[in-house]
Amino acid sequence: MSQIISPSVLSCDFANIQRDVEMINNSTADWFHVDVMDGVFVPNISFGFPVISAIKKHATKPLDVHLMIANPDQYIEAFKKAGADWLTVHYEACTHLHRTIQVIKANGMKAGVALNPHTSVEVLEDILPELDLVLIMSVNPGFGGQKFIPHALKRVARLKELINKTGSSALIEVDGGVNLETGKQLLEAGADALVAGSFVFNSPDPTQTIQDLKAL
Ligand SMILES: O=C(CO)[C@@H](O)[C@H](O)COP(=O)(O)O
Ligand SMILES: [Fe+2]
User: For 104-126, what is the mean pLDDT?
Assistant: First the structure.
């Protein structure tokens, strides 16, 4: 199976959101990466339910929703209603992570857990068989366009070993500073899915850039 490419709509032109959604529809991208930031868990605010619903209305591919919010439990059902297919919460934002995962799945979504750059992948060992996805942050969350933190490569390799050891079928997704160079290294380390925001949307031909990432 080739890698999953999930362009981050955080970097799209919000005045032309339908155009950018159609671009992703017509590209070789697999998912839409949708970053939700609340100004509490991360020092930035992105967008909420009306924007996600608007994206869902036009998207022909699954929405991969990355919640950078405190108390995500409060909103799980609402994200399902807005159109999330994959819902990823941060380990650092959840006190009862196991319960949160069960509730996401009970609401008919795939369940993911994101790890900040400082959080050891080993903290997920015991619940890996329950997870559909682990999102390794290769930048500190909150902003697009940041520089890739190289230790993400070792983290992906360690997580891959744990996934194999526990018999989990979780996908490894990586988010932050992904381009052709870091993307290639991440795939070699064991990543299954790459998120790319500024690299796609700041390029002269986003459709081709998505294709280039898909062809790595
Ligand atoms: O979750 C985040 C940032 O917190 C990301 O999904 C960004 O949207 C990725 O942007 P680039 O680093 O690819 O520009
Ligand atoms: Fe993200």
Answer: 98
Q: 70-82, pLDDT tens digit by residue?
A: 999 999 999 999 9
Query: Ligand 2 centre and the CA of 199: distance in Å?
Result: 13
10 Å CB burial of residue 107 (0-12, 13-18, 19+) is middle
Residue 1: the pLDDT is 74
The whole-angstrom separation of Cα 24 and Cα 13 is 13
Query: Does residue 11 line the site of ligand 1, with CB under 6 A?
Result: yes
The Cα 55–Cα 48 span in angstroms is: 11
Residues marked active site are found at 35, 175
Q: What is the pLDDT of residue 129?
A: 98
Between the alpha carbon of residue 58 and those of residues 25, 64, 92, the distances in Å are 9, 15, 32
**Separation of alpha carbons 187 and 34, rounded Å:** 22
Residue-wise pLDDT for 153-163, tens only, equals 999 999 999 99
- The CA 66 to ligand 1 mean position distance, Å, reads 10
Which is the CATH superfamily of the domain at 4-214? Aldolase class I (3.20.20.70)
Residue 114 · residue 138 · CB < 8 Å: no
Please tell me whether 41 is known to bind a ligand: no
212 annotated ligand binder: no
User: Which ligand is located closest to the Cα atom of residue 144?
Assistant: 1
Neighbour tally for 100: CB within 10 Å: 21
